[in-house]
């Protein structure tokens, strides 16, 4: 069995949001103006796709672009999806929440990259086992 290449998996995970962005941008052109939020969904999917590519390019591009911009782009893309959903349901968009989450995410990512250099911290390991306790089969 060939070895598992995480970089290839991350690059492949950037394809689906990119294709979804293309579909949503073309869909938004044909929708009436009273149906709101579709452009935000499309923009969010595009930002997530580009961010996944940046994350996969770690080591090939500078760290701030790969680590900081890539992780913050994931947060921003998700926030754009949230705002798009709020607009679709005729709610007031919560831009301040998105800005707050982006600031917290950027600060935490920068801290775990520059001050503590913890890959586990940046990926948030939710398992209850200590890292050395996992056995290989």
Q: What would you say this structure looks like, in words?
A:
The protein is built from 6 helices and no strands. It has 137 residues and is an all-alpha fold. The chain is flat. The chain has one domain (6-123).
Overall pLDDT score: 84
**Proportion of beta-strand residues:** under 5%
Total DSSP E strands: 0
The biggest sheet, with number of strands, parallel, antiparallel or mixed sense and barrel status, is: none
Radius of gyration: 18 Å
Dominant shape: flat
Q: What percent of the residues sit in helical stretches (DSSP H or I)?
A: 55-70%
Cα separation of the termini = 14 Å
Number of helices: 6
Instruction: Write down the oligomeric state.
Output: single chain
- Uncertain spans: 125-129
The total tally of domains equals 1
**Structural class of the secondary elements?**
mainly alpha
Give the topology string: H per helix, E per strand. HHHHHH
Topology:
Blueprint: H1 6-13, H2 15-30, H3 38-56, H4 63-88, H5 95-115, H6 119-123
Helix pairs in contact: 1-3, 2-3, 3-4, 4-5
Concise overview:
It contains six helices and no strands.
Key terms:
137 residues, mainly alpha, 6 helices, 69% helix, flat
């Amino acid at each position: 069995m060939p070895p598992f290449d995480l970089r290839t998996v991350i690059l492949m995970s950037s394809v689906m949001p990119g294709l979804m962005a293309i579909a949503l941008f073309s869909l938004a052109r044909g929708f009436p103006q009273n149906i709101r939020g579709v452009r935000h969904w499309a923009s969010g999917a595009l930002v997530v796709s580009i961010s996944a590519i940046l994350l996969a390019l770690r080591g090939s591009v500078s760290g701030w672009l790969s680590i900081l911009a890539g992780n913050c782009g994931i947060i921003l893309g998700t926030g754009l999806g949230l705002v798009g959903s709020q607009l679709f349901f005729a709610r007031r968009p919560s831009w301040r929440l998105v800005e707050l989450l982006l600031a917290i995410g950027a600060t935490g990512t920068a801290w775990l990259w520059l001050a503590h250099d913890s890959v586990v911290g940046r990926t948030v390991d939710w398992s209850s086992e200590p890292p050395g306790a996992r056995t290989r089969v």
